Each structure stands twice: as C-alpha cells, then as structure tokens.
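FAQ

Q: What does a record look like?
A: Structure on top, sequence underneath. For example:
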C-alpha cells in the first residue's frame, strides 16, 4: 500500500453533483453527489456489471462528458475544456490501462510503450533518461524479458501484453493512472503479482492509482475501496 499524506494537497479527483446518462437513455446511469481521491492514493472501485464503473472512468478521463455537475482532475474542470483541450489534458496527465489493452499490433513492444511521449511533450519532459531507456527500464521492472522488446505485441501472451499496457500507462510519470479490469484474463497468482508491480511503480512515480475490478481478492491490497453502488444514487428511489 502507499503511504498517503493528504495535508494541504489538491485532490487529484474531485466530483461534485455529477449526473450522466447515455444519449437516448431515459434515466441516468450515474448520479454521484461527491467523490474525492487524494494524491498518491491507491483506490479500488468495485460494483456489479452494468453499474457504471467503466462509464465513471470515461468521465474521469474526459472521454465521456457529464450532463451536469463538476469533474475536477488535478484542479481542472475537464467538462469546461474543448474536445482538443481534453485530449491534450488526458495525454499529459493520465495513464490509462484499458481492459482490452488497446495495444497497436503493427508496432513493436517498445514502440507501443513510447506512444505517450509522442502525444505529450510534457510526459517526454518528465523523463529522467531517454524515452528508449525509460521504456526498457519500465518493461524490465514489469518482468518482460528483453528478447521480447523488439517483437510485435501480437506475438505476446495475454500476460505479457498486460505488462506492455502497464508500461505504456506509466511512461512519463502521469499524475493519475487508471486501470479498467486489466487483470480479468489472468489467473490468481499472475493477478496478484501484476498488482504488486503496478503499485510499486505508481509509488515510485508518486502517481494516484484508480483501479476497477470485479475480483474481491485484490481489494485488500489497496488503500481504500469504493463500492460504486453505495455512492451512485442513480436508480435509487428518492
């Protein structure tokens, strides 16, 4: 677990009076009065399928936009940004590990990990060594054998692809790391090992980690657990 000192820190995530519904839907899928996540916290978000976990992550990254309320990320109301500004803000500040990884099959392992620095000058500036060296170091720390680094990601196992996706998200020390069910295809031992490695790297970067999963066995490894069903008032009789 991380050691979090929240004194005089701006929250990394601050949600106030949020409501969101999909186009043509008759009811909101999310109604969240308040949610605050502090710098350096490792947060586990749980809840049944269909309760809005991935939708919430989309709102935190600016991929989705709330109909009302405020979503502040690092002190910035991302709903107030233009689409191009949201894209830049996301590239500069957020590392995203997608459930299906979203790796580019026509690129090598290292080329996939280098992508954040191509989209964000800030992420590139935050490196303490060259992009290539940093990518290799991250992959080594995530236990990917060196002989795989020049291979196409399509040649890798699911577990190896997962490590590449994590290294890409960590590249350039983003302040917020978001992971959407990235361990769903792994067995228990590999899931536990991956979480430990991810947290270790997040601690080294002083990044905040928001992790969504159905797996209750992972919950105890996090600083705090949030049951989305308990904070989401959508569908709750008034």
């Amino acid at each position: 677990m991380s050691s979090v000192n929240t004194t005089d820190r701006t929250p990394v995530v601050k949600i106030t009076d949020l409501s969101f519904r999909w186009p043509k839907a008759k009811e909101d899928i999310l109604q969240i009065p308040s949610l605050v996540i502090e710098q350096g916290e490792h947060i586990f978000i749980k809840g049944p399928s269909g309760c809005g976990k991935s939708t919430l992550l989309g709102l935190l990254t600016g991929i989705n936009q709330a109909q009302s309320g405020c979503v502040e990320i690092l002190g910035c109301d991302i709903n107030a940004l233009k689409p191009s500004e949201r894209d830049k803000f996301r590239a500069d500040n957020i590392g995203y590990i997608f459930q299906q990884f979203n790796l580019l099959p026509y690129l090598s392992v290292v080329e996939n990990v280098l992508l954040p620095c191509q989209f964000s000058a800030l992420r590139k500036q935050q490196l303490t060594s060259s992009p290539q060296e940093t990518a290799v170091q991250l992959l080594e720390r995530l236990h990917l054998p060196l002989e795989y680094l020049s291979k196409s990601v399509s040649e890798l196992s699911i577990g190896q692809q997962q490590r590449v996706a994590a290294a890409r998200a960590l590249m350039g020390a983003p302040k917020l790391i978001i992971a959407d069910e990235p361990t769903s295809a792994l067995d228990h031992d590999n899931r536990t090992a991956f979480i430990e490695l991810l947290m270790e790297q997040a601690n080294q970067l002083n990044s905040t980690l928001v992790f969504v999963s159905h797996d209750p066995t992972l919950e105890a490894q996090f600083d705090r657990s949030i049951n989305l069903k308990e904070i989401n008032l959508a569908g709750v009789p008034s």
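Q: Is there anything notable about this one?
A: The mean pLDDT is 89.
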